[in-house]
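Q: Structure for this?
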Amino acid sequence: MRVLVTGGCGFIGSCFIRMLLDEDSEASVLNLDLLTYAGNPANLADVEASPRYEFVQGDIRDLELVSRLVADVDQVVNFAAESHVDRSTSERAGQFVDTNVYGVYVMLEATRRHRPKARFLQVGTDEVYGSVDWPGFPDEQTLLRPSSPYSAAKAAADHLALAFHETHDLDTIVSRCTNNYGPYQYPEKVVPLFLINAIEDEPVPLYDGGTQVRDWLRVEDHCRALLLLLRSGEAGQIYNIGANQDPEVPNLELTRMILDVLGKPESLIQPVEGLRPGHDQRYAVDTSRIRALGWQPELDLRGGMEKTAGWYRERRDWWEPIRSGAYREYYEKHYGAALKS
Ligand code: NAD
Ligand code: DAU
């Protein structure tokens, strides 16, 4: 089985590649990644010498390149995306449309032309349902109401993937997963940002009172679900993936957990307002369809956070180079004024 993985140098893609190579000795992976600010070859340092792993630096929007790469694979898993909501609400929104919509079209078109029997898994997000009123749990038929340019572009990509199934009989599947946490996550996202800031005794900028709810899932559980979908998912279907944490965990509670796990004081919490326009209040999904295939997540968020915190404590060699580069500039621009006020 030869699998083209895009965005494999990112947070989830790298976990997925590691798991696939580990669990299936017959599998080989071709990883296409542009290496944007979020892509980091160090995320896959442990597999780069494997004869079953090959890396190509390139763009999913490059039809010629993708056509060549897709020609001899059995499956395509598209992780490549601009993935950070805060960046999508800035002047960078066009980049989100380019990569997350046009890029997905190119991937689908190249697959249709050159490998029409390949299974195509489009990795999507629960954010396409928008903010979900409690106690709702949208299923895969629920109307999409994305709030940010990021989630609107991801919703368009879902529709494109499903349209290629309807019109060209392409073997496409769409997944929609909730928030992931774990090792190798770029520190613009809340869990690694707060872990690293707290390790450094720096303030953790909690948005808008911290009442918002996300459904935290271990990245390994997400990747196991995706492997299952490649094997057993039904063509043309959508699958929600989520932990269904019960009770639900508001951001303030998550923040307190992070600080407690690290033995840091709550005085590090710095409330900030207005940094996320259109901030969605609650995400939640009905996961019965993927659970019916036999998947279930690890629910112990505290245990998962302890493990994750341990990883960030030990892997300064991974995050220090990130924090000293362009990230610092982004951080100053995004948080600077709010953290000083
Ligand atoms: P990430 O930002 O860590 O990684 C994205 C990767 O895509 C990077 O390696 C980057 O270099 C690459 N990339 C970006 N543009 C590219 C292009 N034009 N061509 C080739 N490569 C390109 O993202 P992530 O958190 O690992 O998310 C991966 C996917 O999963 C995304 O599609 C995201 O929407 C989806 N998702 C993420 C979460 C989450 O909690 N992080 C949850 C559900 C779904
Ligand atoms: O739900 C799935 C989505 O989860 C994925 O599709 C996205 O790619 C991924 O980035 C993530 O989106 P979120 O916007 O939920 O994740 P983020 O870590 O940016 O924010 C999580 C919550 O934490 C959100 O309510 C905003 C809040 N937050 C975030 C940051 C960066 C803060 O309070 N402070 C912060 O500094």
